[in-house]
Amino acid sequence: SVLPSSGLSSSPVTSTPSSGVQYAVYCSSKEARVFSLPSQISISKQKIFDSLGASASNIIRASVVKIAGSACLTCYLAAGRIHIYSLPSLRELFNANLDPVMDSFRSMIGLTFTFTNRGHGLYMCSPTEIQKITLSADVK
């Protein structure tokens, strides 16, 4: 999902199959929060930043997707890093640098990046090429 100009993005409601409890995930440019429904009680909060860079990096894209059968929050940061968090705990599962061939295309990647279910990501790596990446080894 695209973060609107207000800086707040919400996910579709997600539920865990074992408990039947529903959660809503809200993601701003710097943090994510998970709320239980219908009580709307905040159950977890995570500041999201580029741990390798000297400065903070805003979240450009955030999506709730299923990877290996579990709901996860996936984030693409302005510095070119991908972060994946478990839901509902927001425990970091994975982070990696997406090294674009040319830094001049980084803004285009941020505008076109999308996460898909089953652990894939897609983005425009040039004005005429789409790049597909795999985020999970469990992809069939």
From TrEMBL:
Transmembrane segments: none
Domain Lethal giant larvae (Lgl)-like C-terminal: 24-134
InterPro entries: Lgl_C_dom (IPR013905)
Originating species: Rotaria magnacalcarata
PANTHER family per the UniProt record, alphabetical: LETHAL 2 GIANT LARVAE PROTEIN (PTHR10241), TOMOSYN, ISOFORM C (PTHR10241:SF25)
Gene Ontology molecular function: any one: GTPase activator activity
Full protein name: Lethal giant larvae (Lgl)-like C-terminal domain-containing protein
Assigned GO CC terms: plasma membrane; SNARE complex
GO BP, sorted A to Z: exocytosis; Golgi to plasma membrane transport
UniProt xrefs under Pfam families: Lgl_C
